[in-house]
Automatic annotation (TrEMBL), chain A:
Gene that specifies this protein: mdtI
Membrane topology according to the record: Multi-pass membrane protein
Family as reported in the entry's similarity comment: Belongs to the drug/metabolite transporter (DMT) superfamily. Small multidrug resistance (SMR) (TC 2.A.7.1) family.
Subunit composition and interactions: Forms a complex with MdtJ.
Keywords, in A-Z order: Cell inner membrane, Cell membrane, Membrane, Plasmid, Transmembrane, Transmembrane helix
Keyword presence, Cell membrane: yes
Localisation per UniProt entry: Cell inner membrane; Cell membrane
Protein name: Spermidine export protein MdtI
Main location as per UniProt: membrane
Listed transmembrane segments: 6-25, 37-56, 62-84, 91-108
Automatic annotation (TrEMBL), chain B:
Keyword Membrane attached: yes
TM spans (from-to): 7-26, 32-50, 62-81, 87-107
Keyword tags: Cell inner membrane, Cell membrane, Membrane, Plasmid, Transmembrane, Transmembrane helix
UniProt key word Cell inner membrane: yes
Species this protein is from: Comamonas endophytica
Family: Belongs to the drug/metabolite transporter (DMT) superfamily. Small multidrug resistance (SMR) (TC 2.A.7.1) family.
Domain of life: Bacteria
Organism ancestry: Bacteria, Pseudomonadati, Pseudomonadota, Betaproteobacteria, Burkholderiales
Name the UniProt record assigns to this protein: Spermidine export protein MdtJ
Xref: InterPro entries: EmrE-like (IPR037185), Small_drug/metabolite_transptr (IPR000390), Small_multidrug_res (IPR045324)
Signal peptide range: none
Length: 109, 112
């Protein structure tokens, strides 16, 4: 990863948090039946991509997008547990473990 | 199963890929028109994704959208933005994508 600095990872973290917020809002909109939540969700997605566009100034696009997608899913799953009482099956936990391992490998490479 | 929702899903992936590629260009030189185009593409992608979800299970929709998107963006980064793709990086991405599929496919335990 060339010239990636703290600031790029800070933007990356912000992008992931906004993405998780977007996923929660979109879930609340229940398939566009509650429009306000849907619009909030879209707003968060756009904000998330704005932050991500700052992160890719220093982090490779391929790595940044993989980190964004992977950590986004892990945290969204955590949010689902917290707010919607969704339990994870064993297969889901195996998936989370693979994602974490993949993220670590991407960080090392 | 009809073909229509899958066309929506593929269109969602295509707009996602265009949006992310434009995002990289925006990061290199900030142009407001490019930024607006990126917003348009990402917004459209999520709208198409939501439309596809009305007929395809959400888990399948997300898994397809994410894995196809990740693979395409990795390829574009390598081909057009001069990013390296080492063995470690490829392995990391493969694990991550497998994880995404697992979490989406039956990740949630049945509700009691």
């Amino acid at each position: 990863m060339q010239n990636a600095q703290f600031i790029h990872y800070a933007f990356m973290g912000l992008a992931v948090l906004l993405e998780v917020a977007a996923n929660v809002f979109i879930k609340c909109s229940a398939g566009w039946r509650r429009k306000v939540w849907g619009v909030l969700g879209i707003g968060c997605v756009l904000a998330s991509f704005t932050a991500l566009s700052q992160a890719v100034k220093g982090i490779d696009l391929s790595v940044a997008y993989a980190l964004w997608g992977g950590t986004g899913i892990v945290l969204t799953t955590a949010a689902g547990r917290l707010f919607f009482q969704q339990a994870l099956a064993r297969r889901g936990w195996a998936g989370i473990a693979l994602i974490v391992l993949g993220v670590l490998l991407l960080k090392l490479s | 199963m009809t073909l229509r929702p899958w066309i929506f899903l593929l269109a969602a992936v295509a707009t996602e890929i265009v949006g992310v590629s434009v995002m990289k260009l925006v990061s290199q030189e900030t142009a407001w028109t490019a930024l607006l185009f990126m917003y348009l593409m990402i917004g459209l992608s999520f709208f198409l994704l939501a439309t596809a979800m009305e007929h395809i299970p959400m888990a399948v929709t997300y898994a397809t959208w994410e894995t196809l998107g990740l693979a395409a963006v990795a390829f574009i980064g390598w081909q057009f933005f001069g990013e390296s793709l080492g063995a470690l990086k490829l392995l990391g991405m493969a694990l991550l994508m497998a994880g995404v599929v697992l979490v989406n496919a039956g990740g949630h335990a049945a509700k009691e």
